[in-house]
Amino acid sequence: xxxxxxxxxxxxxxxxxxxxxxxxxxxxxxxxxxxxxxxxxxxxxxxxxxxxxxxxxxxxxxxxxxxxxxxxxxxxxxxxxxxxxxxxxxxxxxxxxxxxxxxxxxxxxxxxxxxxxxxxxxxxxxxxxxxxxxxxxxxxxxxxxxxxxxxxxxxxxxxxxxxxxxxxxxxxxxxxxxxxxxxxxxxxxxxxxxxxxxxxxxxxxxxxxxxxxxxxxxxxxxxxxxxxxxxxxxxxxxxxxxxxxxxxxxxxxxxxxxxxxxxxxxxxxxxxxxxxxxxxxxxxxxxxxxxxxxxxxxxxxxxxxxxxxxxxxxxxxx
Length: 318
Ligand code: PEP
Ligand code: MG
Prior knowledge:
This protein is of the alpha/beta class. It has helices at residues 2-10, 30-38, 50-53, 62-76, 112-115, 119-133, 148-162, 180-184, 186-189, 200-208, 226-239, 258-263, 276-284, 288-299, 304-314; strands spanning 22-27, 44-48, 81-84, 138-142, 172-177, 195-198, 244-247, 268-271. The site of magnesium ion has 5 residues, from helix 10.
C-alpha cells in the first residue's frame, strides 16, 4: 500500500488534456531533498543554499558545497536540481561577512547584489555548482536580479569558476523573477537565460509594496492579486519556447491557485515537499483550455478577493 502510494505520487502529473506540469520541491538541505524524493517530486525546483552559509565562522569551501549539492542530486536520482546562489541580506548576519546595517533590508543590498560585492565567495559557490553539474542535471538560479548587467556579471564569474575547463554544457542558467522590473522587461533577459523561476513571495511584496510577513499587511500581500498574476502571465507568455518558466513561491503549493498558474502558461511548479502530492493531484483535474479561460477572467478581476472567488467557483467540487 505504502509502496503503491509512493509510485503513484512519483508518476508525472498530466492534465486531463495530456499536458505535463512538473511538480518539483523547494528544499534547504539534503534531508529535505530525501523527503522530496520520497513524496514523488519531479526534481528540486529551488535549493535554498543559505543553510550552508549561516551559523559558522568561515564560509563553506567549494569542496563542502560540492559535497552537499551532489548529495541533493543523489537523493533525486537523476531528476533536475535548481541550485540558488546565496540569498541573504542585511537581515541575516554572517559572522565572516560583516555587512552595514540596512534601514530597509528588503530594498537594500541583498541576493545577487550582495553576492556581487564579494566575487571571491560567489566564484567559490559557482565552482561548486559547476563540479556538481558534472554529476547530474543542474540549474543555477540567481536571486533578486533586477537588471541584465547582474546576469552578465554572474555569467562572467561562472566562466572563471569553471576554468580551466568550460562551463559544463548541461548547466542551465536562470534568474529568479522576484522584482517587477524583470517581469516587465523579460525580453531583455531572455537572450541570457535558460530558466526563469518566479519567486512569488518576493514578487508579491515588491509589486504591492507590502513587506513579507508584515503582520498588518497579510491580506494586502496576496500573490493572487491581478497585478501579480499579470506579471506571472507576461513572464510565461513572453518566455514561451525560449526559456523554461517555473513558479516557486508559496502560492504554487495552494491547490486552489494551481489552475490560474497553469492558465497563465506556467508548466513547472516547485513547492514544499509536503505539498507535492496534493499539487500533482490538482494538476490531474485540470484542462489547460479551461485554465486559460479562468486566467483571463482572473486578470480582469478587481482585486485578490475577486480572484479567490473565481477560483472557488471553478474548483472541481465547488
Ligand atoms: C520567493 O521569493 O518567492 C522565493 C521562492 O524565494 P524565498 O522565499 O527564498 O525568498
Ligand atoms: Mg525570494
